[in-house]
Amino acid sequence: MIRDLTDSEARAALPLKWGAVPEGTIPAWVAEMDFAPAPAITAALTAAVGRGMLGYSAFPGTAQPADLDAAFRGFAERHWGWDVAPDSSTPVGDVVAGLRLALDELCPPGPVVVPLPCYPPFRDVVALAGREAAYVEHDPDLDHDDPDAGALDLAAVERHLEAGARTVLLCHPHNPLGRIARRAELEALRDLVAAHGARVLVDEVHAPLVLPGQDRFVPYLSVDPGAVLVTSASKTFGTPGLHAAQVVLTDPEETARLRAVPIAANHGHSGLGLVAGAAAWRDSDLWLHALRSRLRVNAEDLRDLVAQHLPKARLRPLEATYLAWLDLRAYGVADPAGAALEHGVRLAPGHDYHPGLDGHARLNIATSEQRLVQIVERLAAALT
Prior knowledge:
Blueprint: H1 7-13, E1 26-27, H2 39-50, H3 68-80, E2 89-92, H4 95-105, E3 112-116, H5 120-128, E4 133-137, H6 154-162, E5 167-171, H7 183-195, E6 199-203, H8 220-223, E7 228-231, H9 234-237, E8 245-248, H10 252-259, H11 271-283, H12 285-309, E9 314-315, E10 323-327, H13 336-341, E11 345-346, E12 348-349, E13 360-364, H14 369-383
Parallel strand pairs: 1-11, 3-4, 3-5, 5-6, 6-7
Antiparallel strand pairs: 2-8, 7-8, 9-10, 10-13, 12-13
Helix pairs in contact: 2-11, 3-11, 4-5, 12-14
């Protein structure tokens, strides 16, 4: 059910990921998959285009051509046992746009706690919102074999809250560490922010990508109804170019307030994106099951390949996402991604996720078995 794109197909389908590298270089940097889309999404989009559905998307709060809200609620109930209230989703253009909107309209004034390493646009969106970032660093020397290593440092978060921070920006599951927060951790964070009159703004775009064998994902909003959730089907189902995400709130009055903002503050979501999102959440469970199984195999293959070709490397155990975090400091190369690019593979530099952090890289495993082997072999050639 999961079909690998050929190189030529990938270049046509993924102009950012593949177009940013010359022919012969394998891209493993940006979070896009080298797989054909889920059939239900392709069918829904083909039908929508056949109906001539190329106009503006409806404004938030009005009837949508695709019921994204109901589809997401059904997905959350089936996969996470989470009962989401009806009409709790507001469409936005993408996750980053949703985070910016939430910071502007829903989060208390004050600095924003940002754990490092983090998805680079987190830092940008905090600055664009006119907020100060209060960083909490993960220990780069943490035990990579310990599943509890990599948990958010709540003592550091508390120090920032005591100093005036009022929003905690949470990535769950974590990008780039690939870790799932445990329920007890989420509950402790909830209690901490509540004690300081703060709020959690959570990005759960990778939530459907919990790999087989892991405990069930716990949606943060199910633990802390006062939080703001921003999510999208885009990363899981390969539709980022269609521009559709959603802000989910438990308070109907806040939802109404968010939908009442001027269109200039919340625009860019597309009708085709909403169609694709509904088809993903509602009709693509079997494809998602196959994807998770494939990613688990790729994660195990990566572990074996790294052990064989880069025995001094440390690899975070991948619990979710298709983005592996590599600690390559033992090879003495400050920028492994830069070295790898000279050997025909593009990775994401670790310092993009944690400024000043040398010797790390993020590697996208959502590709063919053959390419994954070549990626590791070329990285090893660059470092050894």
